[in-house]
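Agenda item 2: zinc ion complex prediction
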Amino acid sequence: MACIDCNKAIDYDAFKNSTETLGVELCERHTRLIKKVILENNTPLEAVQLYYALKEAGANPMLEWWDGQKSVDIAISRVKLNIEIDTDYELITHEQAIQDLEEAMHSFKNGFTTIRIPHMVIKFYLKDTVDNILGIIQGLKANIKVI
Ligand SMILES: [Zn+2]
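Presented output:
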């Protein structure tokens, strides 16, 4: 067993604690760091799981990236891709929907692409989610080259 962040060997207690509370294998130090990030930003657990899955896939993600106005759940800065995890997708209100649209408009203007992913998708289709994001990253890279 090893920490998926720093690759340090971890014992059973650390394994049990991190997988039970965060759903990923982390050493004590990284469990503490991630829990701090969650407390400060109200980060969904699925964002943490997707972050590490993307990291493993070599996508260089950043967790809770500050874009100057708000904290983005996951950002892939190389291609200006922001990923937001929606935790209450079914309960979306019209106020929330128009706010999301406005945010999307602002980020497009600044050259950013924002995708919103319902947390259930990450829970049930983590690998497919990662594959699709890798495809989006490739598409964005190709577009950047054209410009
Ligand atoms: Zn670690």
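Discussion summary: The longest helix spans residues 126-146.
Owner for follow-up: CH.
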